[in-house]
Amino acid sequence: MSRLPTERVWFPAKADCTWLWDLPTCWQGWAVVIGWWLALILGIVYLPTLSLPSFALPLFIVAMFALLAAVCYAKGDKLRIWD
User: Fold this and answer.
1) What does residue 68 show for φ and ψ, rounded to 5 degrees?
2) Between 27-46 and 56-75, two packed helices, what is the crossing angle to 10 degrees?
């Protein structure tokens, strides 16, 4: 999918790697990263205090990484995995 000329990429593709994104290039990307870190830290600190099954914390961490990857995929450069 090609981007419109007015669309800004929040997460550029890493120059030396075909399957990773680099640090954000605009404030929206930085807001996502900072919010993601805050949510991850709060979840790691407070989830164990709740009476949840033992797999809740690892599932939360995996879900957080999946969420970040989805945002990077949607708002970042197209990766060159199969080029």
Assistant:
1) -65, -40
2) 180
CA 18-21-25 angle, to 5 degrees, is: 135
Q: What is the pTM of this model?
A: 0.80
Per-residue pLDDT tens, the chain, 83 aa: give them: 555 555 788 888 777 766 778 788 899 999 999 999 999 999 999 998 888 888 999 999 999 999 999 999 889 888 776 55
Residue type present at position 33: V
Distance CA 5, CA 62 (A): 34
Of 83, 65, 77, which Cα lies nearest the Cα of 22?
77
The type of residue at 79 is L
